[in-house]
Amino acid sequence: MLSLNLPFAGGAKAAPNEIFAPNAFIRIEGDGQVALTMPYVEMGQGTYTSIPMLIAEELEVDLQQVRLEHAPPDEKLYANPLLGVQLTGNSNAIRGAWQPLREAGATARTMLISAAAKRWNVDPTTCSAEYGNVIHGTTGRRLSYGDLAAEAGRLPIPENVALKRFEDFKLIGTPAKRLDAPSKVNGTAIYGIDVRPPGMKVATLAQSPVFGGRVKSLDDSAAKTVTGLRQIVRLDDTVAVVADHMGAAKSGLEALAIEWDGGMHANLTTEAVAAELEEATLKSGAVAQSIGDVDRAMVNAVTKVEASYQLPFLAHAAMEPMNCTVHMRNDGCEIWVGTQAPAWAQQAAAKTAGLPLERVVVHNHLIGGGFGRRLDVDGIIRAVEIAKHVEGPVKVVWTREEDIQHDVYRPMFFHRLSAGLDAKGLPIAFRHRYAGSSVVARLLPPAFNNGLDPDTTEGAIDLVYALPNLQVEYVQVEPPGIPTGFWRSVGPSRNVFVTEGFMDEMALAAKQDPVAYRLALMDEAPRARAVLALAAEKAGWREKLPERVGRGVSIQNAFGTYMAQVAEVEVGTDGVVRVRRVVCAVDCGIVVNPDTVEAQIESGVMFGITAALYGNITVKDGRVEQTNFDTYQILRLDEAPKVEVHILQSQELPGGIGETATSAIVPAVTNAIFAATGKRLRKLPVDTAALKQPV
Q1: Would you give the end-to-end CA distance of the chain in angstroms?
Q2: CATH number at residue 203
Q3: Are residues 6 and 122 in the same domain?
Q4: Above 80 in pLDDT, residue 10?
Q5: Looking at the 3D structure of the chain, how many domains does it have?
Q6: Helix count and strand count (H, E) for the chain
Q7: 38 with 69: CB under 8 angstroms?
């Protein structure tokens, strides 16, 4: 067996035949199968295909030869090199893996070639690798990787290896079929909710409907008559019912008579949170970016534009609701879960169980939709708290209602903007101040410095436009009691809607076409110009449309990727909005798997349209009002638009793709609604009542 240290492992060394302990590693066994321990998780985004492609490309094996294993929690070995923590998020799995995973494959290939050359007593430069074999070019002799694994494992690890040039790629850049698709189609794929260790019981729970509330009283007499019910666990703010199966657990829960003490947040409302945020933007904040002198430039402006924008709380609403299986023992704790952050999961479980870290075993699994929700560990903490009262393994499954009403929500934000234009309509001053919650301050405190973090500012600073005088400020305001978390496309999901909506308003004030206006400000951003020009061309930007049908545009540089979108939207006389067509042009650097790029853009578009048209979490009397998909609506199949994706060829380093389309589509839709109706929407979700055509 040959194990290889990844380049970012920190200089680990090993004796002959020793199994290394790298950040992530490759094993090549006697049958030639390549086992890749994955430091990232699969939640539908294609990671379990695109990252093995990096290994297979440099190792010169067929993609089907690569077998995947979930990485165990280990912050030192498996941390994302770009983030410094072991997690999958921020659209940076490929960005983080691009160099070290390719180097790992190239290192393995080099060692295998050296082993073959040593056996044949030839110069290694006369040998090459192909489809899992080393071939001697002069004689045509060949040896499989399986035959060479043991000998290669006894060789010293080379410090520097040559990586393939862009023009030599055989696999990277080709449309590879998803490695995880067959098991998901035939039902053998194991998600967190699928695990069933021997003797397992099932539990479901009711948490205080008011943020920060507690259980005041409990009458469980009726619940105890439910067949299959085994146990009722009462915590300070939660009641859980443990049973033989989910049906019995849910029936038992419904039979409970629980009286709640709402506590200090019993009167909390969304309106109160919004008012606090709006008030906060009247005061100065932490300066995220400052160029020139905005105040002086504003005095000389010929035209001034002002606007305020507001975004709501949003839930994740993944198809797989929150769940975690826990087996508490006297000497340890074992958990089965789908998590985006395995090390955080282990740390949370250990702290809750009162155990040393090494006594907690985490089995990670496929995730049925993450969107940032599985970065938080509240569900794991809750499951361990319940499992401490249960003998044997217990699977804690949240109902859909619990999942939506006890989420960690995308924060509500309020934005205040102003711009000054010169006689030609070009911006000479741009001011943007906004207020809302910092998720980074809670989850990654070291990254929150001087009142700022990279999440709240991305999409608001370093715009693709040439703005000679710019001032961007952020005011941190944490909503009382309401937990906030990362949500697909994070900061750009808010900031791009605002900046691109306001850019349309500036173009209108300048009496210029929105695309032409943007292009005029992009002389120093050639990649942005290219995607915008391509999207406009492919969408037929200037082609005439029927009445109450409009096109809207957006452009962004987020997650290391340039993307432009044009949305074609129809607004009925009843105010109902239908997105008919979306054209997207993207420059995400070197493309690993174009099929994944297209699929993720299509997925992100649907996710973003859902947010634009329907997404809204409201709080009344301290309680989330939405409960299920009837009140927290998701875009339906018959509402899905046609999505066209145009990928620009690039040799730049790979950018992220999983979240980019979600942030880009929202302003494209609202700008299209303005083009169709003349009504500017600065508050989400879309207010259909405001779009009705007067009779």
Answers
A1: 77
A2: 3.30.365.10
A3: yes
A4: no
A5: 3
A6: 18, 27
A7: yes
Structural domain contains residue 292:
yes
What is the pTM assigned to this prediction? Answer: 0.95
Judged against a pLDDT cut of 50, whether residue 19 lies above it is answered with no
Alpha helices (H) in 363-430, listed in sequence order: 378-387, 400-405
584-607: b (≥16 Cβ within 10 Å) or e: bbbbbbbbbbebbbbbbbbbbbbb
Distance between CA 487 and CA 466 in Å, rounded?
29
Q: Which residues pair with 308 in a beta bridge?
A: 416
Q: Indicate whether 11 and 150 sit together in one domain.
A: yes
Of 185, 201, 220, which residue sits at a domain end?
A: 185
Helix (H, G, I), strand (E, B) or coil at 498: helix
Q: What is the DSSP letter of 210?
A: B
Q: Determine the Cα–Cα distance for residues 218 and 239; give it in Å rounded to an integer.
A: 9
Place of tokens 């709240």: 456
Q: 3-state SS of 466-495?
A: CCCCEEEEEEECCCCCCCECCCCCHHHHHH
Q: Residue 355: inside a domain, yes or no?
A: yes
Across the chain, which distance is largest between two alpha carbons, in Å? Answer: 90
CA atoms of 538 and 82, how far apart (whole Å): 35
- Can you spell out the DSSP letters for 654-687? P---TTHHHHHHHHHHHHHHHHHHS----BSS--
Is residue 640 one of the residues assigned to a domain? yes
In the sheet that holds 34-38, the strands lie side by side as 2-3, 26-28, 34-38, 66-70
Res. 684: pLDDT tops 60? yes
Average pLDDT, the chain: 94
In this structure, the answer to whether residues 436 and 393 fall within a common structural domain is no
3-state helix, strand, coil in the chain (%, to 5): 35, 25, 40
Q: Give the residue from 364, 397, 430 where a domain finishes.
A: 397
Residue 29 is predicted with a pLDDT of 76
Kindly state whether residue 258 falls inside one of the protein's structural domains. Answer: yes
pLDDT at 23 over 50: no
Radius of gyration of the chain (CA): 27
- Return the H-helix or E-strand segment holding 522: none
Span 148-167, average pLDDT: 90
Residues 174 and 219 in one domain: no
pLDDT per residue as tens digits for the range 426-437: 999 999 999 999
Residues 220 and 333 in one domain: yes
Distance CA 601, CA 665 (A): 10
Please report which helix (H) or strand (E) contains residue 114, including its range.
Answer: helix 93-120
Domain range for 336 is: 192-263+322-397
Q: How would DSSP label each residue in 320-344?
A: S--EEEEEEETTEEEEEE--S-HHH
Residues 347, 413 within the same domain = no
